[in-house]
Amino acid sequence: MKTTTRTTRTRSGVGVYLLNRAMPHLPPWLGMAGVGVAGSGAHLMWAESAAAGVGLTLSAVALTGATWWAGRETSAQRRLHSAITVAAGSAWMTGAALAGPLSGILPDTYLMGGAVLALSWNVRMALRSTESGAATGSGDKGLLEKVGLAKAMIGRTEVEPNRVTAKIALEGGEQTTDDVAKALVRIASALDLPQSAVRFQPDPDSARRGELVIVPKDMLTEVQEYDGPSLPGGSITDPLILGRYDDGSPLMVWLPGDPAVGRNANHFLIAGGTGSGKGDAALNLQTEILSRRDVIMWLSDPKAFQDFRPLLPAYDWAVEGGAGTEAMVEALQQVIPARTGWLGKHSYRQWSVQAAEKQTDPAHSCRPDRTACGCPGMPYMVAWMEEAANTLRALGDDAFTGIAQEARSAGCSFFVSLQRPSYDQMSTSTRASLPAVIALGCDPRDEGFSLPESVIDQGAHPGAWGNRKPGYCYAVAGGIDPDRYASPGRTRQFTPRAVSIMETLAQWAVRNGAKADPITSKAAAAVAGRAYTDRARTDEQEQTGMPEQDDDMMTGQALDPEDAAMDPEQDLPAAEQGDDTPLFGTDTGHKPTPEEARELFARALDQFETAGQMVVGPKDFMDWCDANGYSRPWVSARLRDAAAEGRLQPTNQTGRWRIVPALTPA
Q1: Strand residue runs (E) in 532-639
Q2: Cβ of 652: how many Cβ atoms within 10 Å?
Q3: Do residues 449 and 423 touch, judged by C-beta distance below 8 A?
Q4: Which residues of 150-175 are buried (b: 16+ CB within 10 A; e: fewer)?
Q5: Considering the entire predicted model, what is its pTM?
Q6: pLDDT at res. 70
Q7: Domains defined for the chain, CATH in brackets
Q8: Residue 276 confidence (pLDDT) above 60
Q9: pLDDT tens, 507-529?
Q10: CA atoms in the 13 A half-sphere facing the CB of 339
């Protein structure tokens, strides 16, 4: 009994399944049966009526024309198929009404022709279901109609975990990929998704084809805390992992070029408004860079290393804003050609891992006889300008132009970080030399300053985040699949727990990281002098909070031998009569001769150099002028004289001069 019942239910279930599968294919056959019934009935009514024959013929023509007109919004194939079907059915019905459904060839035509037409519609439906999926023919088409893309056709669809990719073809001659880009926000609205969840990747070989990508679930809402560098001790040629994309895959960027894959070295613009997570993005990048064995890094930070202080020992050179940054910019302009010259002499068309090692390969020898030269290697270099808007205001909007244009050939990546990379802050030449970008949340009006227009057209809109989603970003750079440009990612978050990791990383870099090569050190010292050669002692004082002291004070010796017998614990003697009498009277004193004045000026330059301020101008001599009674025009004239003597060199900024340092050990 139970077996019979189970068998009956199974058969019933199979029958229901087959019926459900067959129902979508029944309408053409029902239509064929309806035409046969209608033709037989019409014959009983109008078999002997000539007027009815004329009316039926005109009706068939009119119905066929109406079908052709109604199909103008569909594809050309569907329009033609519908018109042929209606014309054939109307013609058979007219013949059956006048001559009878069983006369002549009408029965054979009905059975064979009607079956062929019904089957053709079944085949069409099956092909459409196979190509686009069962739901594509209805739901997706209805969606496209809602957003103004009714004539677009959905093709092959790939469904992955949290990602749907659908081929889309637009109506030729009437629609382009620009129409899809404009409709993305409406598609997101129709699907009740955020704007960043829908993007479009146009086919570079077609103006009407592309891929529509939908990511239904934002996997970036969960914060990922920083837990250390991805590849400690690895090479800078390996990818730097900053976080993850919204589908869970890692967010990676590359710095050096790789001719094997056709990738050039990358310079980066990091842009994001206040509260967008720009500091965390910088820390992700810098900790990845400083954890590699074959790279050195220079940092300029006008915010006094507010975010980067735990990493301070790891930098080859770190300066705050102002004079220190001026010196670093000037040094970069000399270091880059020096590094390029070394790479060229050693037969490197661009920097590679071999360039960072001792040169034992005859193929990379600088000797004329092409035997191994044994020269020390040259590590990769990263120059980072944090809060660059301050530097650009001080040095001019083209301060970085030459560096950005020439650094790639020198084995150097250049980073510029600022909130709003508008063209009134940065020259167009510099901006064009920074094609790689990490764009965080910003004001909607500033999107075009951060991302290329083509990426925005694909659906990237950092303005939709503002400062509400810290760490959300778009990455556009060589090495990244262009299909990923419009995919949002999120950087890892640095919490107080990350401080100890950064301090440990900095100590590892001091012990195991690369050191500046002789070529880079010599070129930097030739420009920056003690500002570069004494950087290690300055960094140590920065870490310990110890004020700078002279060597005599460090050894405990008095500055003046006459003070050796003084007891520092004894009180000063009381004031006596005559202590307030001017020592040299009340006259104006001795006026220095021109030779003495030039000597005083030379000493002032020496004092600036000793203090590490290697870029000066008339405004830096204001206190000196007041103390010695000289005017600003006189100082300007002395600056020009010093430049003629080779003690100064002009910079790119009007009125600013670079001190040519005395010979100092590198």
Answers
A1: 615-616
A2: 14
A3: yes
A4: ebbbbeebeeeeebebbbbbbbeeeb
A5: 0.65
A6: 81
A7: 20-131 (no CATH), 136-214 (3.30.1360), 240-537 (3.40.50.300), 593-666 (1.10.10.10)
A8: yes
A9: 999 999 999 999 999 999 888 88
A10: 30
Alpha-carbon torsion angle 435, 440, 444, 447, nearest 10: 0
115-161 pLDDT, tens per residue? Answer: 888 788 878 777 765 554 434 444 455 677 777 777 778 778 787 77
Residue 86's contacts (CB-CB under 8 Å, 6 or more residues apart) are 63, 64, 67
Contacts with 471 (C-beta within 8 Å, 6 or more apart), sequence order? 223, 243, 277, 280, 281, 440, 490, 491, 492, 493
Match 């997101």 to its residue by tokens: 188
Residue with tokens 């100590």: 507
Query: Given CA atoms 262, 293, 296, 315 in this order, what sign does their dihedral have?
Result: positive
> What is the structure's pLDDT at 271?
94
533-571 pLDDT per residue, tens? 888 655 554 554 444 444 433 333 444 444 555 555 555
Residues forming a β-bridge with 299: 318, 384
Helices (H) and strands (E) in the chain, counts: 23, 17
Rounded CA-CA distance 290/230 in Å is 11
User: Strands 295-300 and 380-385, how do they pair?
Assistant: parallel
CA distance 551 to 561: 15
Per-residue tokens: 47: 């078999």
Q: What are phi and psi of 428, to 5 degrees?
A: -65, -30
- Collapsing DSSP states into helix, strand and coil, what is residue 217? coil
H or E segment to which residue 317 belongs = strand 317-319
As a dihedral over the C-alpha atoms of residue 372, residue 374, residue 376, residue 381, rounded to 10 degrees, the angle is 10
Residues in a beta bridge with 439? 271, 474
What are the structure tokens assigned to 162, written together?
Answer: 């949290």
- 416 and 270 in contact (C-beta within 8 Å)? yes
| Cα 451 off chain centre by | 8
d(CA 271, CA 387): 10
- For every residue of 558-589, DSSP letters joined together read -SSGGGTT--TTSPPPPP-TTTTS-TT-SS--
pLDDT over 80 at 331, yes or no: yes
Please say whether the dihedral angle defined by the alpha carbons of residues 333, 338, 341 and 347, taken in this order, is positive or negative.
Answer: negative
Q: Which residue has the higher pLDDT, 434 or 143?
A: 434
Q: How far apart are CA 171 and CA 150, in angstroms?
A: 9
**N- to C-terminal Cα separation, the chain:** 99
290-327 as b/e: b if 16+ CB within 10 A: bbbbbbbbbbbbbeebebbbbbbbbbbbbbebebbbbb
Q: What Rg do the C-alpha atoms of the chain give, in angstroms? A: 40
Q: What is the dihedral of CA 466, 472, 477, 480, to 10 degrees?
A: -140
Q: What are 114's two structure tokens?
A: 């009607």
Helix (H, G, I), strand (E, B) or coil at 341: helix
The DSSP result for 158-197, as a single string, is EEETTEEEEEEEPPTTT--HHHHHHHHHHHHHHHT--GGG
Q: What is the DSSP string of 378-447?
A: --EEEEEETTHHHHHHHH-TTTTHHHHHHGGGGTEEEEEEES---TTTS-HHHHHT--EEEEES--GGGH
Q: How far apart are CA 283 and CA 288, in angstroms?
A: 8
Neighbours of 102 (CB within 10 A): 11
User: Which residue, among 261, 227, 276, has the nearest Cα to 470 in the 3D structure?
Assistant: 276
How far, CA to CA in Å, does 66 sit from each of 86, 527, 616?
10, 85, 86
